[in-house]
């Protein structure tokens, strides 16, 4: 898997059942903090969110370690909450609007599920997989890595795709983004470029 992208969907630390210091050594925490402190994105992404994301990044297997994607569902849909980070150079490559599922909430994401036909987003750590062309055009399949939390992602067709309802114009008209059936949908003007950058196995 040449281009491995790690996608981390974040809600609250308590959702994952551990605190910042569990499942990692103090030295690892210190290294992660050092990356965050010297990065260009520390004013965009909180230290707690970055620590949580990086713990999953180190816990699961990814063939490419220079990038990570974080979707921060603690932010409302009107905010650019999809972050593509270059870990090697400690810079934010992309920041985009991203939709959540229809039954996950209105502007704020509050309800999550791993169940088919729930029309809800799933939390947890994902690995990007192969691309295909479907009803939403060029799309990227995701594999959920956490049993019982998001491992039905492929069965549910939870994918990254572009959508017309993910735009500032939609926000200005409705006060929120449009919502998907659980997919992290991106703006159509940016989706193809981003998918090509993160396909094939990133966290």
Describe this protein with a few key phrases.
alpha+beta, 4 helices
Question: What do these coordinates show?
Answer:
The chain has 203 residues and is α+β, with helices and mostly antiparallel strands. Helix content is 21%, strand content 23%. The chain has helices spanning 26-37, 47-59, 168-174, 188-198; strands spanning 6-10, 67-72, 82-86, 91-96, 124-134, 137-144, 159-160, 162-163, 186-187. The strands form two sheets. A seven-stranded mixed sheet has the order 4-3-2-1-5-6-7. It has a two-stranded parallel sheet with strand order 8-9. It is globular, with a radius of gyration of 16 Å. The two termini are 12 Å apart. Mean pLDDT is 89; it is low at 1-6 and 10-24.
Brief account:
With 203 residues, the chain is α+β, with helices and mostly antiparallel strands. The chain is built from four helices and nine strands.
What is the structural class?
A: alpha+beta
Detail the poorly predicted runs.
1-6, 10-24
- Biggest β-sheet, characterized? 7 strands, mixed
Mean pLDDT: 89
**Count of DSSP-assigned helices:** 4
- What amount of the residues lies in strands? 15-25%
* Proportion of helical residues: 10-25%
Instruction: Write down the secondary-structure element order.
Output: EHHEEEEEEEHEH
- From the spread of the alpha carbons, the general shape counts as globular
Strand order of the largest sheet: 4-3-2-1-5-6-7
């Amino acid at each position: 898997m040449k281009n491995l992208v790690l996608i981390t969907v974040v809600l609250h630390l308590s959702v994952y059942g551990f605190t910042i210091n569990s499942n990692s050594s103090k030295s690892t925490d210190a290294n992660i903090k050092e990356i965050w402190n010297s990065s260009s994105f520390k004013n965009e992404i909180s230290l707690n969110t970055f620590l949580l994301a990086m713990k999953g990044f180190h816990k699961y297997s990814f063939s490419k370690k220079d990038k990570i994607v974080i979707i921060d569902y603690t932010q409302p849909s009107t905010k650019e909450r999809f972050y593509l980070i270059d870990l090697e150079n400690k810079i934010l490559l992309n920041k985009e609007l991203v939709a959540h599922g229809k039954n996950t909430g209105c502007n704020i994401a509050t309800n999550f599920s791993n169940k088919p036909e729930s029309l809800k987003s799933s939390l947890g750590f994902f690995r990007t997989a192969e691309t295909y062309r479907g009803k939403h055009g060029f799309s990227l399949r995701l594999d959920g890595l956490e049993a019982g939390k998001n491992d039905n992602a492929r069965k549910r067709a939870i994918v990254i795709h572009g959508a017309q309802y993910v735009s500032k114009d939609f926000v200005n008209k409705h006060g929120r983004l449009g919502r998907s059936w659980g997919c992290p949908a991106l703006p159509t003007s940016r989706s193809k470029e981003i998918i090509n950058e993160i396909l094939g196995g990133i966290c």
